[in-house]
Amino acid sequence: LCLLVQDAYGMFSEVQLQSLNSADDTEQYSRRWEGKFCCLAGMKILQRTTRGRALGLFSLIDSLWPPVVPVKVPGQSQDCEMMTTDLPPPSFCYILAAQSGEVHVEVDEEEQISNLYQPPAVRGLKDILQIHACNERCSFWARVLYLKPQTKLNVPVNQREICLFVTDCTLQGPAHVAPKAVAVCVTTSCALSRDITEALSTASPLLFFKDALWGNGEIICVERTVLLLQKPLLCSAAGADLSEPTGPVRLDELDSATQANSICALRGTVVGVNESTAFSWPTCDRCGNGKLELCPQDRRSMYCNQCSQAVTSPVMKMQLEVFLRCPSRSQKCPGLFVLINMLLSLQSYEVQSVLGKEVGLLNCYVHSATSHPNCVALEEIVLL
C-alpha cells in the first residue's frame, strides 16, 4: 500500500506503508483516506528520487501540477504565499517508509476534503485518443468487451500481461468514430483486485481506469494505476460523457486500415478451406449440446442428456481455417484476403459445403495484417 502525499509547500512524497494480503483493500483505503489531511510520524527517507529515475511516478505527479491553491514558500514567513503559476514542476520526490515497520499514519476521516486535493480528471476515450503528449496520465470509465491474455509460453500465467478491449459512449456514438473499441494493456505491475478478476471472467464489466498511462498511441495500466468497479466519489468529469453505453456494441468492420492486435467485425465469402486443420462434431439441434451419447436403445442414433431425447437431425459444428474474400471501403483496395479460424454450423460436414458460403457479421481478433499482399489473419471471438 502506497500513498502519494503533498504538503502545504507543494512538495510530494510517496509513502510505502505495508504489504496487503490482496489488492481488495486498496479501494477501501482510497475511499476512506484519499483527499483527507494526514499526519505522518516516525518516517524514514528511503530515497530522494528524480524524474530520470522514476518516470512513472513523475507522470502521476505532473498530472497533479500545478496545485489548485497557492502554496507556501520555503524560507519565508508562513503568511507569505506565491501563486502556483510561478512555480516550476517538482524535480524530485522523497520515498518514505515507516521506520519500525509499523504504520504511523493518522488520517482524520471526518475532516472535509483538503483544498490541495485534485480529484482524477475523467475523460472520454475519444478525447484521450486525440492527446498528442507522451506518458500522460488519464482516467476514464469504459465497458470491457474482450480479454486477450498474453500467450508467451515461457512466461508464468500469473506473470502474463493481459489486453482489455474497451469502449465507451464517445466511441459508440452515431457519428463515424474510429476505432469503436481500443486496447488497454494491463501490465503485471498493475495490481488487480479479486473483484476485478472475477468480473472479467464472468461478464462485460464497466470499469473505472484511474491514472492509466497514455503514450505512443497506447493506453497502459502500470504501477500506480488503479482499476475499480465503481466510479470514485471524488472525480472531476469536466464535461466528459460518463453515461453507460446502451444498445448493442458496434465494432469497426474490417478494411484495409485495420491494424494487428485489434478487434473488428467481419463479413465475406468463403473461397478456400485449410482441410488439414478441420475437425467437426455433432450437436443437438434443439439445445446445442456438443456432448452427445449413443442412444441406449439404438446404438446407431445419438442421445442428448440435456434434452433427455434422441437426436435425429444433429447439427454439425466445424472448427476450421477458411479463406475469405472481404469487401473493403478503400477505393485503392477492392478486396481483402482473410485467413480466419472460425466455428461453423453445418448440416453436412463436407468441406465443399463451406465454399461460397456468406459469413458475417463475425467478431474477430486481428493477429496480423499486411498491405502487400492484402492479407489478414483473424480469429473468431465471442465478446464478453
UniProtKB/TrEMBL annotation:
GO terms for biological process: double-strand break repair via homologous recombination; regulation of establishment of protein localization to chromosome. Residues 6-383 form the DUF4503 domain. One of its GO terms (cellular component) is nuclear chromosome. It holds the Pfam family DUF4503. This is SPIDR protein. It comes from Psilopogon haemacephalus (coppersmith barbet).
